[in-house]
């Protein structure tokens, strides 16, 4: 049923954006962490990698169906779609250096490696994730309204 697929697509995006916000929050919380568990240097910024589920082929099939009148079953259309988080990766950009010879994690030259987190990037990423989340909430509320009105037809 297309209606339930639409809800699943919106729900998958809400889940993915919530995870993205959680990872951004973790990055901001560790902006001054100079030592991680195991002593392998400072905290590394984490990024969320997302990919479309059935996005590429479904869109191509929809275009083929619209252009040529191919039936949905013959076109191999999938009713499911959305987005999913494939992995959470660490940013490999270099650490920032700060001169503080009194810091317990300072090297022999007196420099401390700080996390590769830029607060401006994190805030802009959080704003983008929040906007995407809000857009999906709006889409979900629109779906609820459509379903509600559809149910009222039978009255």
Automatic annotation (TrEMBL):
Residues 7-35 form the Flagellar basal body rod protein N-terminal domain. Keywords: Bacterial flagellum, Cell projection, Cilium, Flagellum. GO terms for biological process: bacterial-type flagellum-dependent swarming motility. It comes from Agathobaculum faecis. The gene is flgC. This is Flagellar basal-body rod protein FlgC. Its main location: other. It holds the Pfam family Flg_bbr_C. GO terms for cellular component: bacterial-type flagellum basal body, rod. InterPro entries: Flag_bb_rod_N, Flg_bb/hook_C_dom, FlgC. Residues 108-152 form the Flagellar basal-body/hook protein C-terminal domain. The basal body constitutes a major portion of the flagellar organelle and consists of four rings (L,P,S, and M) mounted on a central rod. The rod consists of about 26 subunits of FlgG in the distal portion, and FlgB, FlgC and FlgF are thought to build up the proximal portion of the rod with about 6 subunits each.
């Amino acid at each position: 049923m297309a209606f339930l697929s639409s809800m699943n697509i919106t729900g998958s995006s809400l889940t993915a954006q919530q995870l993205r916000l959680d990872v951004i929050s973790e990055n901001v919380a560790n902006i001054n962490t100079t030592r991680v568990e195991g002593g392998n240097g400072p905290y590394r910024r984490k990024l969320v990698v997302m990919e479309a589920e059935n996005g590429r082929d479904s869109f191509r099939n929809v275009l083929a169906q619209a252009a040529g009148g191919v039936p949905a079953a013959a076109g191999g259309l999938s009713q499911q779609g959305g987005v999913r988080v494939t992995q959470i990766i660490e940013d490999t950009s270099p650490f920032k250096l700060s001169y503080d010879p009194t810091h317990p994690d300072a090297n022999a030259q007196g420099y401390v490696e700080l996390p590769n987190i830029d607060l401006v990037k994190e805030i802009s990423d959080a704003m983008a994730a929040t906007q995407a989340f809000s857009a999906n909430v709006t889409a979900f509320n629109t779906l609820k309204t459509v379903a509600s009105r559809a149910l009222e037809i039978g009255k």
